Amino acid sequence: FSPDAIFYIKSVFENNKNREFLVDSQTGTRLTFEQMHLHAIAIAQDLNRRGIKKGDRVAIVLENSFAIALIYFGCLYAGIVTVPINTSFHTEDLNYIIEHSGASLLVVSKNTLAKINITQLKKKTIKLLMLQIDGNNNKDYSTFLEPWDILKLPFDFQFQSFNNVFSDDILTIIYTSGTTSKPKGVVHRIVNLIDNARLFVKVLDLDTRNRFYGILPMTYLGGY
């Protein structure tokens, strides 16, 4: 495909600012391309401020939501590698993936926190963020968890998305189900997944008239 994956992503957001990008059927949240872009910038900046930089890995244990999409794009904008973990994994495998992937930061929610071995992670240098939306904070959680309201992060319009990020950089590491042994991480680069998506759209003849209804886990490759 031409142009390259990074230029393509930029052009899509630039040319569709006012169009609807995503609808979360569970919450009713609707985001335009421009809103997605701005929230992604804010997330990228916030992760950088936390010391998470290009090439670092962020593990994500969340159920399907618009928040996952925002975090994916925020990481992409900063060249940060996502490690999505399917919530159906057994706790032992889930914690193995967090450690094996070398994640610097872990994002969980109220609903997925029980899957995490907090005691084990406290011994590591990994940072933990508890996803919060619209200030729905619960102060009863461990002080080891910091509330993270991604919709209230400030925008800095000086931030340059994709700065020093290239098409052949790693986008995500998806772990296998580990049915025969321990889960194994499969590396996917930006150009591979973007071109795969573009080919998918071309073969199925999808365009701006269509909507795509996603029901697969967004923490596994099909949903991603």
Task: Spell out the key features of this protein.
224 residues, alpha/beta, 5-stranded parallel beta sheet, two-stranded antiparallel sheet, 6 helices
Radius of gyration: 17 Å
Mean pLDDT: 90
Strand pairing plus helix content: what structural class?
Answer: alpha/beta
User: Which percent bin holds the helix content?
Assistant: 25-40%
Q: List unreliable stretches of 5+ residues.
A: none
Query: What fraction strand?
Result: 15-25%
Q: Biggest β-sheet: count, sense, barrel?
A: 5 strands, parallel
Give the topology string: H per helix, E per strand: HEEHEHEHEHEEEEH
Topology, number of strands: 9
Shape: globular
Q: N-to-C terminal Cα separation, in Å?
A: 20 Å
Spatial sequence of strands, sheet with the most strands: 4-3-5-6-7
Number of helices: 6
Describe what you observe in this structure.
The chain is α/β, with parallel strands linked by helices and 224 residues long. The protein is built from six helices and nine strands; from the N terminus they run αββαβαβαβαββββα. It is 32% helix and 19% strand. The strands form three sheets. The protein has a five-stranded parallel sheet with strand order 4-3-5-6-7, with helices on one face. The mean pLDDT is 90.
Short description:
By secondary structure, this protein is of the alpha/beta class.
